Amino acid sequence: xxxxxxxxxxxxxxxxxxxxxxxxxxxxxxxxxxxxxxxxxxxxxxxxxxxxxxxxxxxxxxxxxxxxxxxxxxxxxxxxxxxxxxxx
Length: 88
Prior knowledge:
By secondary structure, the protein is mostly helical. Helices cover about 50% and strands about 5% of the residues.
């Protein structure tokens, strides 16, 4: 990571409200890395060796949210792997 101080912008809204569009614009214009919860869970689900794969699959099949503790781990891992300190 570039330094220990993180800049984090959280965008919340209903499905279809434009969260993804706004996050992409913020990322492009201000140099943030866009971390999408949906994209992170789909990437984890696609990995054969992901320890959360079955849990994510089970929640997807029930049309349920992935538990927040798992999503926090996925986000934390993405932040740790990034060279940036600015996330949206």
